[in-house]
Amino acid sequence: MPQVQRLLKSHPHWSAVEAIYHRLQAHGYKAFLAGGCVRDALLGIMANDLDVATDATPDQIEGLFEKTVNVGKVFGVMRVLIDGADIEVATFRTDGTYKDGRRPEGVHFSSPEQDAQRRDFTVNALFYDLATQKVLDFVQGEADLRNAVLRTVGEAERRFEEDHLRLLRAARFVAQLDFVLEAETFEAIKVMAPLVKTVSGERLRDEMGKLLKAKAVSKGLEVMIATGLMALLFSFRLRDNEWPGSYGAKEVWQTLALFFRNAKLEELESSVQLLKLSTKEQRGIEKAWALWEKPEDFFAMNMGKKLQRLPEEGSHWALQVLMLEGSIWTSQVKDLFKEWQLWQNQLPKPLLTGEDLKGKLVGKAIGACLAEAFEQQLERKLQTRDEALLWLQKYLESDSHG
Predict the structure, then answer these.
(1) Among candidates 87, 114, 118, which has minimal Cα distance to 11?
(2) For residues 274 and 276, what is the distance between their CA atoms, to the nearest angstrom?
(3) Residues 248 and 156 in one domain
(4) Does 362 share its domain with 384?
(5) CA 20 to 30 Å from 57, out of 124, 241, 376, 394?
(6) Which residues lie below 8 Å from residue 175, measured CB to CB, with a gap of 6+?
(7) Can you give the pLDDT at residue 93?
(8) Which residues contact 50 (CB under 8 A, 6 or more apart)?
(9) pTM, whole model, 2 decimals?
(10) Band of the pLDDT at 373, cuts 50, 70, 90?
């Protein structure tokens, strides 16, 4: 497995994993890499995280390492902080009964062979023995990797009954790996799809975020349509399930905004509530959606008003997409962005403040005056405070404000 070993060794946290391995081995314990990092190495991909599986118990792990974090000790999961890295170290286990569709009521520490049987999909149930430098496959996961097939470990309905999020994870892994669903796994999702409604919004949000950042998003969305998951979660996508691309999105809310782009207002609002998004994420999505819904209203505004909208992440993102997709608004967006760059991508300090209007205007008239002055400033019609004060004098003397 020279390619696997080479990829794993090139990971920035490899030295931390080696240190954990040598400490465990010196005390008579096994240490394997487990799950996604082994899968990715076999596919020639650098993994995000290196996770270790061992026959040492959580108490023994705590005793062997100076800095540990209890993230799920009752389930055999610890984190070891070493060599500047944060490595998950989990004890081989079998799971007890699942009653909440999310986690087992208890676990029993076991062997690698038994641990593999509790995992979701065969391609995620592989181990890499650090001592022998060989992949350990107890569930035919390597064959499924070669055939680009996503299959549950064991009985599909049982796996989905254990954790209802796995229904959506199947679509996500199809998108992430660019695989196809094995027939029995596909049929089980169709039968059990309604259980996805029991999953918390936070977990749905995280899973959709990963799906929409994957390399084969359209395939994952097609799986959601075909299995009934889309109708249950985001029925508006049944009208149009196209995915034009992510346009360089870096934040989850940005890809979700694209996903929600063709929703009606009430559908957008219910989807945002379903996913339990943060206030910042919700605001960004709603601002982007509103601009995409009526771009003509935005571009009808004067330059000063448009510039004031650019600090809003949702508006900026929506404009960026309009430009990247070559819409009819592209030239106007480019002009606006050039003007924004001249302001160094931030709004300047206003030349006039409320102090300048004390005793001169009251109520809403103060805000209206300051807003107009700031627009004049942003359009470079007022460039100094003296010019702004002279403008204010004329503003107050005019018939409409006197």
Answers:
(1) 87
(2) 6
(3) no
(4) yes
(5) 124
(6) 211, 214, 215, 216, 217, 218, 219, 220, 221, 223
(7) 87
(8) 8, 11, 13, 14, 16, 17, 33, 37, 87
(9) 0.90
(10) very high
